[in-house]
From TrEMBL:
Pfam families noted in UniProt: LRR_8
Keyword Glycoprotein: yes
Protein name as catalogued: Nyctalopin
InterPro entries: Cys-rich_flank_reg_C (IPR000483), Leu-rich_rpt (IPR001611), Leu-rich_rpt_typical-subtyp (IPR003591), LRR_dom_sf (IPR032675), LRR_TM_domain-containing (IPR050541)
Family: Belongs to the small leucine-rich proteoglycan (SLRP) family. SLRP class IV subfamily.
An annotated GO cellular component: plasma membrane
Organism: Myodes glareolus
Classification lineage: Eukaryota, Metazoa, Chordata, Craniata, Vertebrata
Signal sequence extent: none
Chain ranges of the LRRCT domain: 327-374
Length: 472
């Protein structure tokens, strides 16, 4: 009985004790139900030896703590929140958190030298509900580490070095939120999430996931938000999301998917947000979205779609917003239904046409589809061919004029003087023949004058013929 009285003495007079026992480098303030201790940015290299017994919250962020020994914080029966973020922790002794029986939130994020946790690190933390292990550069989590935490609801473990979903998750029946984004996880195996029957939110975005095994989420019937965006998924099994009847958000954006299968979404009747943006999708299977009657937004932007058939929504009644920008759309009659829906619903915009050439650069809403006498839609390309019949090409006429002018130019080019002709042509002729060149020169000049006269006539005649053909 005496021991019990001694143990209880320090916990009397909450306001006075909070101020009197406050560590020298910290500031303490009274709260409605206890004491709040702030030791952040205090330059501490070790944990203070004493805290107010009434402490409900302790903040030791951004110090130089390296090691947590056994019972590092003594006995603090009222402590609910402990934050040790942005320190230099490299080792946590098993049992370091003993004496904190009511601890509900533990933050160890941004301790990049931690890298390893002993299986008994969190022993005796039976009331812990939120655990933050983000950016600790952990390679793995011991299988039994989280088994000591039956009340755990939220696990923050992003920015680590995991190559697979930690097996320590299995069997955490009360876990509702798990965050593993920006790690190195390569696959979601069929047993990775076994027993997580109350899981409502799972983030695996920005990893290296190449494969999601069939049945991987079969135990996650309560899942509402699943983020698999910015991974390396090129394909998914038909039953990838089978059983996720409560799912409201599915993000598959930023992967390498080339097609959308109908079977993927067959069970997702409650889905509200579907992200398929920033993939390489060229084809959407018939009826792919027909069960998504409650969808508020469908993101298909940033893909390689040239056509989207109305049969993708067949039997469905899609009232949400449709995002289709940054696709190489071919705005022919296959998209007439979409053009009409754009004008009628106002829930889709920015569908820029990449082809046919006659409408390239226009928005689909601006494209006019003509119809034949029997009511059939006519593609823009076909309209251009029937309405603009090209006349005879002027190219042959131009070619004829050009060649004739070139010939005349050569014929009318200045001739070499008679003396040069004599020197070059008759160079080997004997002297007697050379003596007769003066008379020969007169005759040559006369021929040249006659040639020029005839050439001028021919040129005039040719121009008249060309001009007459052009007028016709």
């Amino acid at each position: 009985m005496y021991a019990v009285v001694v143990f209880g003495l320090p916990c009397t007079g909450a306001t006075e004790a909070c101020l009197q026992v406050c560590p020298a480098a910290c500031t303490c303030s009274s709260m409605e139900h206890g004491c709040s201790v702030h030791c952040d940015r205090a330059g501490l290299l070790r944990v203070p030896t004493e805290f107010p017994c009434e402490a409900v919250s302790i903040d030791l962020d951004r110090n130089g703590l390296r090691i947590l020994g056994e019972r590092a914080f003594g006995t603090l029966p009222s402590l609910r929140r402990l934050s040790l973020r942005h320190n230099n922790l490299s080792f946590i002794t098993p049992g370091a958190f003993k004496g904190l029986p009511r601890l509900a939130e533990l933050r160890l994020a941004h301790n990049g030298e931690l890298r390893y946790l002993h299986a008994r690190t969190f022993a005796a933390l039976g009331h812990l509900r939120r655990l933050d292990l983000a950016a600790c550069r952990l390679f793995s989590v011991p299988e039994r580490l989280l088994a000591e935490l039956p009340a755990l609801r939220e696990l923050m473990a992003f920015d680590n070095l995991f190559r697979r979903v930690p097996g320590a998750l299995r069997g955490l029946a009360n876990l509702t939120h798990a965050h593993f984004e920006r790690s190195r996880i390569e696959a979601v195996a069929s047993s990775s999430l076994r027993g997580l029957r109350h899981l409502r939110s799972l983030s695996l975005q920005a990893n290296r996931v190449r494969a999601v095994h069939a049945g991987a989420f079969s135990d996650c019937g309560a899942l509402e938000h699943l983020l698999l965006n910015d991974n390396l998924l090129a394909a998914l099994p038909a039953a990838a999301f089978l059983g996720l009847r409560r799912l409201r958000t599915l993000n598959l954006g930023g992967n390498e998917l080339g097609r959308v299968a109908r079977a993927w979404f067959s069970d997702l009747a409650e889905l509200e947000l579907l992200y398929l943006d920033r993939n390489s999708i060229t084809f959407v299977e018939e009826g792919a979205f027909q069960n998504l009657s409650g969808l508020l937004a469908l993101h298909l932007n940033g893909n390689r779609l040239t056509v989207l058939s109305w049969t993708a929504f067949q039997q469905g009644f899609f009232l949400g917003r449709l995002f289709l920008f940054r696709n190489p759309w071919r705005c022919d009659c296959h998209l007439e239904w979409l053009r009409d829906w754009m004008k009628g619903s106002g829930r889709v915009a920015d569908v820029a046409c990449a082809s046919p050439g006659s409408v390239a650069g226009l928005d689909l809403s601006q494209v006019v589809f003509e119809h034949s006498s029997d009511g059939l839609c006519m593609d823009p390309e076909e309209l251009n061919l029937t309405t603009s019949s090209p006349g005879p090409s002027p190219e042959p006429m131009a070619t004829t004029v050009s060649r004739f002018s070139s010939l005349l130019s050569k014929l009318l080019a200045p001739r070499a003087p008679v003396e040069e002709v004599a020197n070059t042509t008759w160079e080997l002729v004997n002297g007697s023949l050379y003596d007769s060149l003066p008379s020969l020169g007169v005759e040559v000049l006369g021929c040249k004058a006659m040639f020029l006269f005839v050439s001028c006539l021919l040129l005039t005649l040719a121009q008249s013929v060309v001009f007459s053909l052009q007028r016709d």
